[in-house]
Amino acid sequence: MNSQPVAIVGAGLAGLAAALELQRRNIPFQIFEASDAPGGRVRTDLVDGFRLDRGFQVYLTAYPEGQRLLDYPSLQFGRFLPGAMVRLDGRFHRVMDPWREPFAALSQILNPVGSMADKLLVARLRASSMAGRPEDLLNRPETSSLEALRRYGFSSNMIDRFFRPFFGGIMLDSSLTVSSRMLEYVFRMMAAGDTVLPAAGMQAIPDHLASRLPADSLRLHSPVQSLTATSLTLVSGETIPAAAVRVSADGHTARQLLPGHLPRLAARAVTALYYALPTSPPVNDPIILLNGNPDGPIQNACFPSLVSPGYAPAGQHLLSVTVLGNPAESDLALESQVRSQLARWFSTDTRPWRLLRIYRIPNAHPAAQPETVVELPTRLPNGVFIAGDHRFMASIQAALLNGRHAAEAIASHVA
User: The pTM is what?
Assistant: First the structure.
């Protein structure tokens, strides 16, 4: 076995998962992370006592790889209600999972979010998504999510009023060009488990993984300038020899480090706005709010402090607002539009709601072109190993799983 450690570039979820697998196999490694903390795109900032995730994110407890790697009780998850409130024609309408909330679901039978036939078709989609093993869904015939929903028989109203704001918000793609495999996989994960937030914010997930690694195995503030299959050079000029090099950076950064070896990767952008509320929120339940009408920039909103109280200081609440893409308007103009829409939604004076921060995230999700869900090889022709959700599908599950698969390939290489 090579006496040099494996060099892992990037302490995102894929990099941390790879490190844990190498540790389990007693293979030495070191992680080089450019920023000040692990997590990659899964980060949380503490602002005036509020926990702000960098873009609205949730965790799905049914993720098989997450169940294998994470100690759920220690993360103290807060749970969203299984469903949503859809803003439609001036009112909010509840759309609840009838298998998880049967009594609440009875009240939605006559609501205008889809026809009775649409509501029955949800059972068909659920049955199809729950059939077989989760990984079997990723081998099914593939089309766009929009085409798949049409083939199931869902009406245009149901697609436009529910699936575009709900699934389109999850995948940051209201056009629903995302793979039908992803649609069914996410639908299964949400039906089989809970949608949650950790008590300490989404940052708690990478922190939890990193805490299980040797303290000296993670080097922060260590951006990589260049690399080969057996060494890397830091921006500082330091050269690191390695038994193998594994790139776990996001797709954009990975392409910069590996010129000529990776195709140009499209990305989906998102803009997140966070507000501090000095009083109780206008919604009492931990539930996501969807925009069923194109009456403003908001795609969805929620109050994370109702899901997990640690997101806000005692006596206050946090509002999270998601806007798809990177709007051309200035922050000032965009915030004015969002605040006006919130005032209409809740029929309240939003002036006391204090804007905490606006995040414009250009590379929030990788977007394969054409849209497909297939796990790409974890080793490139130049000998460098690579992993991340941009090599599989845009999800925490994919980042963790692809990270492990890359570590398994490295283990075979260095043995």
Answer: 0.94
